[in-house]
């Protein structure tokens, strides 16, 4: 009978522990479900001001104008020209390729509609008209743990933060990074903490990545510095990658009032996504090999029977016995025609087995995957001999556009 009080105290202790765990998991002040990540071309920042007979007609008229302006801006973005050169499409044709209207800000009156809108274009349908591929090569699935430092301490999914909201608002369909964005509910606040983002232990990381279906982890961070309540806020942003929390790059943004904090966070997400995209193009986002559990190879499987080895026939071709490697080549793509022209030039180089664009950036620098019978230095020599201007960087080659040849001057007169 004397053991009964101890037993009751033990049960009460278990109940208290369960209540603490339940309180850590449950709660309505955490968790933000990500927006749609479908692959769409997005054009934002379109201002419209429309008057009509009633409010509904003014709104519909504003959306029609936003579709037309959005199509012109998208064409200029993809082809690097003036928006006025975009082909004219009927409203019915635009309706078939527009996936949605994003309302950033709007004011509605009895007969007037003033708004700042964005337009989402279906990638497959609009890509056919634009003359570009509707698909892009994306990275392996990468788990995102956004960490915000504010008030002296870090927070991830332990509480709802502006940084987490910004990552949930970000439309990742047009990014080459395959983000795995947890909603921050259920067990997420216990598993994906700010401390976990800085913990290098591989065993626990393997369990987490397998649970969320990811190959590696990204930890974008922001440290907020508030000068005074309601006043200017300075945000120090950093893009980090891997279980070792490796810093890729960072930048600083400033706003004058706290009311602009969501806009600063959205701009921070956009810039960090560009940092990750550049790192992917340079081959810096490869999953950490230590996060993969390999099946051990037994010593019996390493025994080779030399009597059954197949002899290699010697020929005069220097590339016959050379391993074919997948190499990365960056090249300038000012317009759509430059993509096919560069691919054709690379494919015509001796030793190149295949060449295809893996990441397209019209108006910028695209990335090509080249299967070549040799190493990076040999590919540089082959491309140079084929008449291309090539520079060698860190683990990749860069094909530069040929400099314009000046016109010969006229010979002096007699």
Features:
414 residues; alpha/beta; 5-stranded mixed β-sheet; 16 strands; 31% helix; 26% strand; flat
> Reading side by side through the largest sheet, how are the strands ordered?
6-5-9-10-11
- Describe the largest sheet: 5 strands, mixed
Count of distinct strands: 16
Number of helices: 10
Indicate the overall shape: flat
Order of helices and strands: HEHHEEHEEEHEHHEEEEHEHEEHEE
**Content of β-strand:** 25-35%
Helix content: 25-40%
Rg, rounded, reads 28 Å
End-to-end distance, in Å? 128 Å
Mean pLDDT: 78
What does the model show?
- It is a single chain.
- With 414 residues, the protein is of the alpha/beta class.
- Residues 17-27, 301-321 and 403-407 have low confidence and may be disordered.
- Helix 5 (162-169) packs across helix 8.
- The chain is built from ten helices and 16 strands.
- The chain is flat and about 70 Å long.
- A hairpin with a 4-residue loop joins strand 13 (352-359) and strand 14.
- It has a five-stranded mixed sheet. Strands 13-14-12-16-15 form a five-stranded mixed sheet, with helices on one face.
Task: Summarize this entry quickly.
By secondary structure, the chain is α/β, with parallel strands linked by helices. Helices cover 31% and strands 26% of the residues.
